[in-house]
Automatic annotation (TrEMBL):
EC top class, as a word: oxidoreductase
NCBIfam families hit by this protein: NDP-sugDHase
InterPro entries: 6-PGluconate_DH-like_C_sf, NAD(P)-bd_dom_sf, UDP-Glc/GDP-Man, UDP-Glc/GDP-Man_DH_C, UDP-Glc/GDP-Man_DH_C_sf, UDP-Glc/GDP-Man_DH_dimer, UDP-Glc/GDP-Man_DH_N, UDPglc_DH_euk
Protein family (similarity comment): Belongs to the UDP-glucose/GDP-mannose dehydrogenase family.
Keywords of the record: NAD, Oxidoreductase
Biological process according to GO: glycosaminoglycan biosynthetic process; UDP-glucuronate biosynthetic process
Identification of the protein by name: UDP-glucose 6-dehydrogenase
This protein's GO CC annotations: nucleus
Pathway involvement of the protein, from the record: Nucleotide-sugar biosynthesis; UDP-alpha-D-glucuronate biosynthesis; UDP-alpha-D-glucuronate from UDP-alpha-D-glucose: step 1/1
Length: 480
């Protein structure tokens, strides 16, 4: 029986291994992590992450050929194929701080593999890593090999949270990069054989190591670039009276462009986009490609601009101050159908409003009160480091309360800010909400989910990203 071990039981490792186990009943799959809490959660009925369809997949194979364990060394030692899915956070200090990936956890994983291995291994990079990481890992393993042979493969994930299980069952492509040597090609084939249990062969792409590593960064940079492009257009639409939804629909009809990732919003979030672009910028700078680095930096700048622009719209619309005013925040996750708050635009918007002394009442159907308070008290990039390096118990931001539904969050509020596109926000009883709010009652829709005309008929003053401005807003400055 082939044995697979995955180091890291997070958003990538857990779901990926569950789908492999389900589709490959003849392979034993063990997910290991040093976090007792996380492994206990995977072994319970309350999984540590929320992802539609994940629970059902885990239930079908847990205890059969899918196992979760904290005995890292034992399972690494026994495995034929080791997936490494550990954090590669952005460095917060030292060389490359604020841009470069911190490979501390990758390096310690590689050293541990070298320490405990007694047989040849295929080591697979699953977490997003900078180009040439494989070379560094290879050196660590080779110099500590004790006669054992290692093959390093790059197998980046292309999952979108909220549809990760679907993406794993029917991927656009599976990318495997390896050394173009006889042993390297054998290792590529061994991993290809695993995916071939359910992925059509023409969707399994093989490349050299460096192409596979760079393809992941490039894919995320291209997707983020599309969002920043449409968000830049949204500012121009507001200035000219155009409607960004109509513009993006017309643009997306061009078969060379396509309709995906052209929804204007308050900005992109998630664990990958910003981190991967910063990483790309750093690699470009290290290779003397200043112009290329500046090009990709602009994608992040536009994203930051969009969040600031949104906050400025809120403040300037409400008589240039939100001090002491209650603002209902609808949604805190970075997108619907996930409880993930990593780099969510809601953090920057909330901090911007708190900076002007607003009182916030935050509602999200999947994010806990503890997580929201932790995010609002944490320094940038700290979220991606292990929990023991994060603030232990957030003291909590006094101006923030967590609501248990949208109606409570909006009661007596001066304004609502919709920051996540949860489906329920489309069908709320806005007449009831309006009746319970302070007047004038504002709605700032950062996701274009509400029916603007219907809300205006009720009596709301509505700002919707990239849409023709409410008469109230027309003479208000967009940027402070």
């Amino acid at each position: 029986m082939v044995k697979i071990c995955c180091i890291g039981a997070g958003y990538v490792g857990g779901p990926t291994m569950a789908v492999i186990a389900l589709n490959c009943p003849s392979i034993e799959v063990v997910v290991v992590d040093i976090s007792v809490t996380r492994i206990s959660a995977w072994n319970s009925d309350q999984l540590p992450i929320y992802e539609p369809g994940l629970n059902e997949v885990v239930k079908q194979c847990k205890g059969r050929n899918l196992f979760f364990s904290t005995d890292v060394e034992k399972h690494v030692s026994e495995a034929d194929i080791i997936f490494v899915s550990v954090n590669t956070p952005t460095k917060t200090r030292g060389l490359g701080a604020g841009k470069a990936a911190d490979l501390t956890y990758w390096e310690s994983a590689a050293r541990m593999i070298a320490d405990v291995s007694k047989s040849n291994k295929i080591v697979v990079e699953k977490s997003t890593v900078p180009v040439k990481t494989a070379e560094a890992i290879e050196r660590i393993l080779t110099h500590n090999s004790k006669g054992i042979k290692y093959q390093i493969l790059s197998n980046p994930e292309f999952l979108a949270e909220g549809t990760a299980i679907q993406d794993l069952f029917k991927p656009d492509r599976v990318l495997i990069g390896g050394r173009e040597t006889p042993d390297g090609l054998k290792a590529i084939q061994a991993l290809k054989d695993v995916y071939a249990h359910w992925v059509p062969e023409d969707r399994i792409i093989t490349t050299n190591l460096w192409s596979a590593e760079l393809s992941k960064l490039a894919a995320n940079a291209f997707l983020a670039q599309r969002i920043s492009s449409v968000n830049a257009m949204s500012a121009l639409c507001e200035a000219t009276g155009a409607d960004v939804s109509q513009v993006s629909h017309a643009v997306g009809k061009d078969s060379r462009i396509g309709p995906k990732f052209l929804n204007a919003s308050v900005g992109f979030g998630g664990s990958c986009f910003q981190k991967d672009i910063l990483n790309l910028v750093y690699i470009c700078e290290c290779n003397g490609l200043a112009e290329v680095a500046n090009y990709w930096k602009q994608v992040i700048k536009v994203n930051d601009y969009q969040k600031n622009r949104f906050v400025n719209r809120v403040v300037s619309s409400m008589f240039n101050t939100v001090s002491g005013k209650k603002i209902g925040i609808m949604g805190f996750a970075f997108k619907k159908d996930t409880g993930d708050t990593r780099e969510t635009p809601a953090i920057d918007v909330c901090k911007g409003l708190l900076g002007d002394k607003a009182r916030l009442s935050i509602y999200d159907p999947q994010v806990t009160a503890d997580q929201i308070q932790r995010d609002l008290t944490m320094n940038k990039f700290d979220w991606d480091h292990p929990i023991h390096l994060q603030p232990m118990s957030p003291t909590g931001v006094k101006q923030v309360s967590i609501a248990w539904d949208a109606y409570e969050a909006s009661k007596d509020a001066h304004a609502l800010c919709i920051l996540t596109e949860w489906d329920e926000f489309k069908t709320l009883d806005y007449r009831r909400i309006f009746d319970n709010m302070q007047k004038p009652a504002f709605v700032f829709d950062g996701r274009n989910v509400v029916n603007v005309e219907m809300l205006r008929d009720i009596g709301f003053i509505v700002y919707s990203i990239g849409k023709p401005l409410d008469p109230w807003l027309k003479n208000m400055p967009a940027v402070a």
